[in-house]
Amino acid sequence: MKDYTYSVTEINEYIKDLIEGDPYLTNVSVYGEISGVRPRKGHIFFSLVEENARLECVIFGGDNMGIRLQEGRMALVEGSVSVYIPHGTYRFICSNVRYLDQAGMYQIKFETTLKKLLEEGLLSRPKKTVPRFPRKIGIITSRDSAALQDVIRTARERKAPIEIYVFHTSVQGDSAREELIKALRKANEYDLDLVMIVRGGGSKEDLWVFNEEDVIREILKLRHPVVTGIGHEIDRVIADFVADVSMHTPTGAAEYVIPDASEIHEDLDSFLEKLIASLSNRFDMEERRLETLYFRLRMIGRRKLELNEFKIERVKELAAKLRKKLMDCFEQDQEKLESLGRMLESLNPLRPLERGFVLVKKEGEIVKESSDLKRGDVVSLVFKDGTKKAQVIG
After folding, report:
1. 6-99, CATH topology level
2. What pTM, to 2 d.p., does this model score?
3. 345-375 residue pLDDT tens
4. Half-sphere exposure of 214 (CA within 13 A, CB side)
5. Inter-residue contact 97 to 59 (CB < 8 Å)
6. Domain ranges for the chain
7. Above 80 in pLDDT, residue 238?
8. What does the pLDDT look like over 88-115, one tens digit per residue?
9. Inter-CA distances, 12 with 21, 25, 55, 94, 291, Å
């Protein structure tokens, strides 16, 4: 072996010469299923896939030539393999694409599963109602995913009074199917208001686990309302069809599910105004009825009409029913006002202090992260019964 050190560029250039000089990789034809079509700067990037392999391809200038590739179609592609030196990657540079008269493997599996679920009536079952103000939300996704961070960021921005339960699972790869089924079963054991299934975008193969029949059947077993946010706007998986609500992205699902604290306050204020108006209208109506009854009784008295015992008892009975109805109305409205008070109290930011929590402030601002403090900083510790000063020593 020669004692020589190569640069990265030299290695990639050598590999490029080997591949592009190989007659078996030049002006050849390859067939496979079209997947992951991505037009970019006039070019069309896509993949040819089969069950256990993928070949990255590109048609340079294809978008400008009006070429439109169809996902899920089988195609015969002509061209040569080339190496892109800056990235050390290879692609199949296409010169021609011809569709074959057959659907791709993934497309066939997708349509077969979808048809089976349709025939069983599982896609036409009644949808569960997603609560407007959920308190406990389960999220099925990878704990390391950007999708989870999107949901958490949305919750923080909206300052929603919710509890989030994360059920970790891989969302692609060999173990994804079993892990996803396990996470779905685990979520079904919890007392939740709804379950979100979220994942960022990817190729058809990356998202395929959300088309697996046993995964779909496990989703259908969930006793909670299900909201999906899988992939990007162009992505569509079978899990979306069986969900109670389907959004295009994880962020879209989070914005649909998580209420904004300001909206909660506005709804409570609106409810209170309507309740007061309803009470006022009801009192006015009952007052007019009493005045009408009193006027009629006076007219009867002035005309010196003799009321028999039956009529007198009837008047008493009506008066008693009227009094009872008023009391029932008062009790119902009092219960609504008490419930409204409890809802407002649950949003009180000082409520946690009664359970032993402490609010930390620096220069009048609430400290949310430990990184906001440094050694020597003087902070205020707000307890339920008063405030104390403290200094950060570490």
Report:
1. OB fold (Dihydrolipoamide Acetyltransferase, E2P) (2.40.50)
2. 0.57
3. 666 666 666 667 777 788 878 877 877 788 8
4. 8
5. yes
6. 6-99, 134-258, 266-298, 349-390
7. yes
8. 999 999 999 988 877 777 788 888 888 9
9. 14, 17, 19, 21, 98
